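To: structure subgroup
Subject: Chain for Friday's discussion

All,

I'm putting the inputs and outputs inline so they're searchable in the archive.
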Amino acid sequence: MHRRSPFLGLLALSALALAATSARAVETKAFVFTSDFSTGMISVVNLNTRAVTPDVASVGSDAALRWYNGLLYVVNRFGGDNIQVVDPAQNYATVRQISTGNGSNPQDIAFFSPKKAYVSRYGSADLLVMNPSTPNGQPMSTISLAAFADADGLPEMAHMIRVGRYLFIACQRLTNFAASNPSVVVVIDMPADTVVDVDPGVPGKQAIALTGRNPVTTFAFDRTNSRLLLGEVGDYFALDGGIEAIDPVTFHSLGMVTTEAILGGDLADVEWVSPTHSYAVVSGSSTQLVSWNPTTGARIATVLDASGGFGVPDVELDDRGELYACRNTSTPSEPPGMMVYGTPGDALLAGPLGTGLPPIAVTFDQATDSVTAVPEVAIASASDLRLGPGSPNPTASIARFTLEGARAAQARVEIFDFAGRRVRELPTQLSGAREEITWDLADEAGRPVHDGIYFVRAKVDRRISVRRVVVLR
């Protein structure tokens, strides 16, 4: 079996880390999908002046927006079944319209390169792989997710996000639109176009099992704690959902960060801003944009209260720290429009900005569906749990780590390979003092592991700390 050189792996990680810390290009525009559910249009907001140019392009009546490589990608969903590519440099002309298959109901598009993109399809058990730069998306192929379907034969794949080489796909697994089955996040190795088995100890290929059910929001990336956040509604009107955290390095759920009962309604959207002040949209008798604390899970304040069950269908953060909220309902004194808030102070900066038809979704002229890399510590541990760096690193025979905790508890220490597969568990008793942990570079069966990059994860309750170690013999 061919092994990739660990030096190449280190170079790749270094390049990703450099890209993650480089200056991000300044966003200049917000693209707003507007609709009255019979007609769909795109309007554009100038981020400097907040002037709106309405109706620059005609699209489907049910759409999602993504930006990539200078082009706006419109996912025309139910009844549309296509990806519409709009070029702002050509006066917002539609330069391509790629079919995703009759009745496929595409939900999202994520990009690996200008010539390779993935489309999640609600009406299919196959993830579509296409070349978005060609008129018909050719060549096309598919990756079967049928193994993750429920009784109706569909996994109900929804939103996606790219983290490095991996694609994360939220699969709702509904029965008659009810959250009757456990939901999962499927992980795809994009260079290989294969499903990653996140738990090789269980027969068949396994996805990330979610604590909650029916994930409906886009993924948000918690930059401080290097974790993905995903909002799950469960059953509507039941307050049985919440916001769940996912470790994108070791492919595990970290459990609920907060719940619908705390936030005050059915979850509709999540946006991360800081470890103590972020945003969510919840719906009940009215729709509310609320601020909340991702560290404690507590609700902080109501930022916007809109009438109607889906009065704020989307919120997005620009690179200036401004939160753009789509308010598609009106009040006696104000029409529908975009609301702009300063973060983290929740101050209304502008709005409603008239967009023609009511606003439904918003994105900016920088990609929002990808995370270049995750930092050294995949999950920022609490101050009373710390896994020290491996020594020596790289190592040829043994790796030693220090583990510190403030109270007696059973710590779970696990080794994962670069693909996220668990290699070994090293149980240890954390007494509150500094403890030495040793790994002999063997797997669970006592066999020496191959050269490469491994992750060592210590977990106590929901507190997690992760380190990387390079095996090089």
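Points worth raising on Friday:
The domain at 385-471 is CATH 2.60.40.4070 (Immunoglobulin-like).
The chain has a mean pLDDT of 87.

D.
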